[in-house]
Amino acid sequence: MSKITSSPRLSHLNISKMKKENVKIAALTSYDFSFANLCQEAGVDIIFVGDSLGMVIQGHDSTIPVELGDIIYHTKIVAKGSKRPLIISDLPFATYQESPKQAFSSAAKILKAGAQVIKLEGGEDMASTTEFLSRRGVAVCSHIGLTPQSINQLGRYGIHGKNDESFAQVKKDAFAQQQAGAVMIVLEALYADLAEELANELTIPTIGIGAGPSCSGQVLVIYDILNITMGIKPKFVKDFMQGQDSILSAIRAYVAEVKDGTYPATKHLYR
After folding, report:
1. What is the pLDDT, as a whole number, of residue 156?
2. pTM of whole model > 0.90?
3. Chosen CATH of 12-268 out of 3.40.30.10, 3.20.20.60, 3.40.50.300, 3.40.50.2300
4. What residues are annotated to the active site?
């Protein structure tokens, strides 16, 4: 295990500067000390502590069962394992939708565990919550497009922006969150043309996962890039272990391909 460095941790202001300077942002979703340390050594800019841990770590069929305590625990150990990457942690299902005050209470616990930014799912419908949090010192990353916490309402995991109505709604969601004070937005499972419009028109960084190459940066789950996730993988996932002799080399290959625009390639896009 490599020694953890003491370089300053990135803030969302550093990420915004990267967007302005057209420097691609490499992010990974990770959940523990060891992987966080490897992410840092490989040059990852953002570590997301995602509620996807419910599926990847806990073996659930969705993110719904994840508790606030789970995110707090994994945030603490990711923070211990890294010193440079910005840490963005999810607000789990039913810990913020009831009211802005509930959201603030949950966010405060996660920030105290070591996150710098909290992520919530929602667009126009959650803009008032984002504004409430932003006005109280909480940096918010919005998550729009495919929102996994809504799977029971959506019925399936699908691509967004396919028709005019969906296209228009995603744009409304994005700009509502930006106006409310979100510091960046995750775009998941969007048609590439829509993601490109948003990346060009929004002033805040866009982090894509299945949203094409035009986003300010990319994020994948670390287990996916290492090809150790069970089950069928989405079209946008790439196995970065191929041709590599170590996990660290695979993560470095991912970072390099994000930075130089090689990933995502055409075969990873929804058009």
Report:
1. 61
2. yes
3. 3.20.20.60
4. 188
